[in-house]
Every structure is written in structure tokens, then in C-alpha cells.
């Protein structure tokens, strides 16, 4: 059960194993919580990997489930110990979407649809600063700088020479035209987006306004997939005060089908580069004219 993956995925795997043991015992989360004199929500968070799992938690749960295989218990205890190791993002303090970063850090591929902004993994520092500054207008200069640093650090998954993240991005025209920062920032951002689209593991497709309505009109979403078959795919929906992670097979399949429709409806790769280049030129002309 050991692996080179990060703490987020380790917690998820451990939680899945603990859920399996509970179900084999025929117990509900409520019954387990009552026996251990803890809240039912704690049991749920342990099983879905959203909460750090201590070795004591594992020991108590294994006793409750009457697990007699000592090697299994020892393996689960080691997983709990490993899952409490900190990821690189912990060095930046309280990052609000740290769970997502953990998934992204260990994912093999990422499919993302963006309707409002250029995907975070493909943003320039200037564009990222303007996006984050607009999203948290009451944030301090220190908080803004920290968020930008985290975003830039995340992008190392794209440039990793050994195992780069396979990224497929469908981007709505509104994200390409929305004036984030100023016209110069936008022109440079779109030129960078074109350059990144030439990377063999990065695919970018634009979805122009004149293509009409599409399945992504309900908003942004991401689908993360992992190289280990035991790690099921995750759909990520970003919220204002909390995020949503969907892991049920039916949910993942629904969003995957939506994404296939988006990819089929969007411009192809070459058409996308031409389209983005035209929009970038418009931003550049606006900058030259002082708009």
C-alpha cells in the first residue's frame, strides 16, 4: 500500500480502505461514531480523505472492526503516518484550496473547462496577480503575493521533465476577451497561451461565442485522473466559500460526457491558435492606442 504519491491521495486511499472495512463489518458510520464516542461527521471526513488520519484513529477503527490481520493493521498505520506528511503547499500557510492542489499534484491528467478566466496552470504571473486581486479585493498585498506564488509553483507540474501533467483545456471566448489587468497583460497572456499549446502534453481549444449554447454554460469544472487504477477520477467544482469534489462513478461519467461534447463543439487546435492570435492582436492594438 505504499506509494510515492502525496499526502492528499494517501489520505484518500486510506479512507477508502477504512470504509471497506466498515462495510464488511456491516456497520453504519453512525454506529461507529457512537461506539467511539465521536461525531458521525468525523467518521465521514476520515473516510473521504478530507481530514488527517492519525495512527490512533486507525488503531481505534481497526479494533472496532475486529481486524485480526496484524500486517494489514500495520500497513494502515504506516499509511496514516505517511498521510500526515506535508505537501509543498503547506509552506505557504493556509491555502484555501489545498485539497485540490494535493489532487492536482498527483494527477496524471487534467481536463478543465474555463468560462471566465484562462486556466490557472496556463497563466502568466501578471495575469494571475490581476485575477487573484480581483477575486479577493479585500486581501492584503502579502496574501495576494502568496496566492500568486502558489499558482506559479503549481505550474511546475506542466514543466516537469519526468512526468508532466497531461492538460486539456477548453476555454470560452469570454475568458479570452475579458480585460484582466490591462490590454498589455491580456496580449502577453494570450501569446503565452499559444506558446504553451505547442507543448506535446498541453491541448487548448477555444469555444467562440458564435458556436452558441453548450454543456458548460453552468460553469467551470475540472476532471482529474490518476495513473493508479485504484485512484478513481475526481470532478472538482470551485465555490466561493467551499469547494465540491465528486467521486461517484455516475457523476464522473456525466461530467466526462459533458467534456466530450465541449471538445467536439470547440475549435480544433489549429483553429484555436488562429482565433487566440486574433484576439491577442486586438488587445495589443488597444494597448498601443491607450485603451
Automatic annotation (TrEMBL):
Q: Which PROSITE patterns match?
A: HTH_CROC1
Q: Which Gene3D superfamilies match?
A: lambda repressor-like DNA-binding domains
- Cite the HTH cro/C1-type domain residue spans from the record: 18-72
Which Gene Ontology molecular function entries are recorded, alphabetically? DNA binding
Q: Which InterPro entries match?
A: Cro/C1-type_HTH, DUF5753, Lambda_DNA-bd_dom_sf
Q: What is this protein called?
A: Helix-turn-helix domain-containing protein
Gene source species: Streptomyces buecherae
Read off the lineage from the record. Answer: Bacteria, Bacillati, Actinomycetota, Actinomycetes, Kitasatosporales
Amino acid at each position: 500500500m505504499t506509494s510515492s504519491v502525496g499526502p492528499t491521495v494517501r489520505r484518500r486511499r486510506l479512507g477508502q480502505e477504512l470504509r471497506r472495512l466498515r462495510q464488511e463489518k456491516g456497520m453504519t458510520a453512525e454506529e461507529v461514531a457512537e461506539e467511539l464516542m465521536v461525531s458521525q461527521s468525523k467518521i465521514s471526513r476520515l473516510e473521504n480523505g478530507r481530514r488527517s488520519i492519525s495512527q490512533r484513529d486507525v488503531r481505534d477503527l481497526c479494533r472496532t472492526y475486529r481486524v485480526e490481520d496484524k500486517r494489514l493493521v500495520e500497513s494502515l498505520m504506516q499509511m496514516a503516518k505517511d498521510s500526515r506528511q506535508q505537501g509543498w503547499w503547506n509552506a505557504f500557510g493556509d491555502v484555501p484550496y489545498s485539497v485540490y492542489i494535493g489532487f492536482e499534484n498527483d494527477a496524471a491528467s487534467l481536463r478543465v473547462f474555463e468560462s471566465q478566466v484562462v486556466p490557472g496552470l496556463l497563466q502568466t504571473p501578471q495575469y494571475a496577480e490581476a485575477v487573484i486581486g480581483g477575486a479577493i479585493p479585500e486581501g492584503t498585498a502579502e496574501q495576494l503575493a502568496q496566492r500568486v506564488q502558489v499558482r506559479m509553483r503549481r505550474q511546475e507540474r506542466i514543466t516537469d521533465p519526468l512526468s508532466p501533467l497531461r492538460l486539456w483545456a477548453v476555454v470560452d471566448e469570454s475568458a479570452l476577451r475579458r480585460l484582466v489587468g490591462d490590454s498589455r497583460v491580456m496580449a502577453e497572456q494570450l501569446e503565452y497561451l499559444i506558446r504553451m499549446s505547442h507543448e506535446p502534453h498541453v491541448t487548448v481549444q477555444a469555444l467562440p461565442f458564435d458556436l452558441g449554447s453548450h454543456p458548460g454554460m453552468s460553469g467551470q469544472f475540472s476532471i482529474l485522473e490518476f495513473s493508479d487504477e485504484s485512484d478513481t477520477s475526481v470532478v472538482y467544482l470551485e465555490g466561493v466559500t467551499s469547494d465540491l469534489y465528486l467521486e461517484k462513478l455516475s457523476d464522473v461519467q456525466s461530467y466526462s460526457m459533458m467534456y466530450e461534447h465541449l471538445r467536439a463543439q470547440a475549435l480544433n487546435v489549429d483553429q484555436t491558435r488562429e482565433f487566440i492570435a486574433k484576439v491577442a492582436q486586438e488587445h495589443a492594438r488597444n494597448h498601443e492606442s491607450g485603451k
